[in-house]
Amino acid sequence: MSAQSGSPITPAPSAPLIVLIGPPLSGKTTFADQIVQTYGIPSISIEDLIRDNANELDKLRGEVPLADMRYDPAMSRFLRERLKKTDLSRGLTLDGYPATLFQAEDLAKVFADSQMKLVALRLQVPDETIRKRAKAAGWQIDRSETLEQRIKDYHREMDAIPYYFPKARIVDIDGSYPEQQTWKQIEGALTDAGVKPASKQPR
Predict the structure, then answer these.
(1) How far is residue 20's CA from residue 64's CA, in Å, rounded to a whole number?
(2) Does a structural domain hold residue 197?
(3) Fewer CB near the last or first residue (10 Å), C or N of the chain?
(4) Which pLDDT does position 13 carry in this prediction?
(5) Segments of the chain scoring below 50 in pLDDT
(6) Total number of domains constituting the chain
(7) Domain membership flag for residue 168
(8) 41: left (phi over 0), alpha (psi -120 to 50) or beta
């Protein structure tokens, strides 16, 4: 962890920084929760940052829906504050952050001095599959317009993320499969990266 972040906790050099990247409805939060349970690695989601800072975001957002504040530069500041209160000794999982290239650039700066092992899991889900999931989940017509915009935003911002993390292990995960099959791919990717389940961590 960079000293500039202000975090009093220093992660072990081999501790993983797992970044879950994916379009809406790709299952990022579900898999972040499974990583917490299986590997004992804490998770911070962009929804956490929005919820915890809703009062400030309400003042900043104007006519922008609160959920769309995920793209605001303030998210980086909120993350740095959250890191000060997070035990990073076993690593960290980020769910939905970064959501923009600006946030990705800022994240790289926050961890610039860290020897953490960066593993980016990029959930690849076809746009049409996302639309089908939205329909199955009962999304209404007015929300479908929001979904289409978020799909566009995702491709615009995140398709270029490898350029911001040239030293990261970036693994493409086929997220079009059922949850259990997708999780098996994630487990395989983490095993390949040397990340072990909590029960097998050295004490």
Answers:
(1) 25
(2) no
(3) C
(4) 63
(5) 1-8, 203
(6) 1
(7) yes
(8) beta
